[in-house]
Specification:
CATH topology: TIM Barrel
Bound molecules: iron/sulfur cluster
Number of strands: 9
Number of domains: 1
CATH class: Alpha Beta
Strand order of the largest sheet: 1-2-3-4-5-6-7-8
Structural class: alpha/beta
Order of helices and strands: HHHHEHEHEHEHHEHEHEHEHE
Oligomer: single chain
Helix content: 25-40%
């Protein structure tokens, strides 16, 4: 498989920073009037000068989202399988150096948690774990996905990066999609915040979304951890990464999430905090640049901000989330990955969505929709 995206194909962070600083209001207005954004438009609209144009950016982003996705808002819920992790990401509460209560759910506990979530109405499940193959092996993931498929037609994983054949095996078991954040595209920052463990390998992570698409997953979610470095640079490289993937793997939907750094065990402070206005700029610009991409909004953000942001580009959101393994329906003593800001129940969020004019969707995919490839279908690029 030839890697479809390299940061070296684009301007360096230093050059890009200079270009962003040099953008004028006239250039922003020109880019705002374009039907399809090119590379220059992306720079113009991510620039500091474009911060004064949030209103027209929001209007355009909302119109594009409504035209492309209608009023639907898919609801999903994360199920944390394990908080064991062999990495040392300096910003994370599951970091192996943190002294937190560790827990890996047994298969029967996973099924019990899933039954609880199913009874709440969820049909779209995100299986999450820290990165530890010994605690959450691929075989176990495949068995659990197969067992959960009857109740959850849409199952995605957010675990350690897998090989293409492993993603393919999970897809055979019923996996719908994967979520994997690069965290930061800037190699030096990446090395500094991931000092050891397998995650230290920048390229192994960068390739994983492509491996998931190569394996035929229907949806692959990407993102950066906002607050580690300049969001304008990260937004630029993220947008280019998704465009590169879309060009080759047109049968896979490449989604975006916008996680901002939150309080977690260890007390890491964001070196480059992203304000609500800057988050709005990033979301709306990437909606204009990637009109077909599903956007996801998690419970990391407060209820009031989520209400404000949702119409500007989002198509799916988590609800009623608990970030502790085994935490649904129980009071647990195991560590959480970060603190949830929107603590409303799934039913409260669903009712609120209706008030806002959205149609909450608990299920919109079934395995019976899957098309078997025709025997004479051309092979994928590799
Ligand atoms: S961010 Fe992920 S890989 Fe890093 S320490 Fe946390 S759980 Fe482990």
């Amino acid at each position: 498989m030839k890697r479809c995206f390299e940061i070296d194909q684009f301007d360096s962070p230093e050059t890009l920073t200079r270009r962003l600083q040099a953008v004028t209001p006239a250039a922003v207005e020109r880019s705002l009037s374009q039907a399809d954004l090119d590379e220059k438009d992306l720079v113009n609209l991510l620039s500091p000068a474009a911060e004064a144009y949030l209103e027209p950016l929001a209007r355009r982003a909302q119109a594009i989202t409504r035209r492309r996705f209608g009023r639907i808002m898919k609801l999903y819920v994360p199920l944390y399988l394990s908080n064991e992790c062999i990495n040392t990401c300096v910003y994370c509460g599951f970091n192996r150096t943190q002294r937190i209560a560790r827990k890996t759910l047994r298969p029967e506990e996973i099924q019990e948690q899933a039954q609880f979530l199913s009874s709440l109405g969820f049909r779209n499940l995100l299986l999450v774990s820290g990165e530890s193959r010994p605690h959450v092996p691929v075989r176990m993931l495949a068995d659990q996905i197969a067992a959960l498929s009857a109740d959850f037609p849409e199952i995605s994983v957010e675990v350690y990066p897998l090989e293409t054949r492993e993603y393919a095996a999970l897809q055979q078991a019923g996996l719908y999609g994967l979520v994997l954040y690069q965290e930061t595209y800037l190699p030096e920052v990446y090395a500094a915040v991931h000092p050891s463990g397998p995650k230290h390998d920048y390229h192994a992570r960068l390739e994983a979304p492509q491996r998931g698409a190569e394996a035929g997953l229907r949806q692959v979610g990407l993102g950066v951890l906002l607050g580690l470095t300049d969001f304008r640079l990260e937004g630029y490289y993220l947008g280019q990464h998704v465009r590169a993937l879309e060009k080759i793997y047109w049968q896979t939907a490449f989604g975006l999430s916008f996680p901002r750094l939150r309080r977690a065990a260890g007390g890491f402070q964001a070196p480059a905090p992203v304000s609500d206005q800057q988050l709005t700029q990033l979301v709306t610009v990437l909606r204009l640049f990637l009109p077909d991409a599903p956007f996801s909004l998690s419970t990391r953000e407060s209820a009031s901000l989520r209400r404000h942001l949702l119409p500007l580009g989002f198509t799916q959101m988590s609800a009623g989330s608990c970030t502790e393994p085994g935490g649904y329906g129980h009071i647990q003593a195991s560590g959480e990955q970060f603190q949830v800001e929107d603590t409303r129940s799934a039913r409260e969020i669903s009712a609120d969505l209706e008030l806002l004019g959205f149609e909450p969707v608990w299920k919109d995919w079934d395995a019976s929709f899957r098309e078997e490839p025709a025997e004479d279908a051309p092979a994928k690029n590799s």
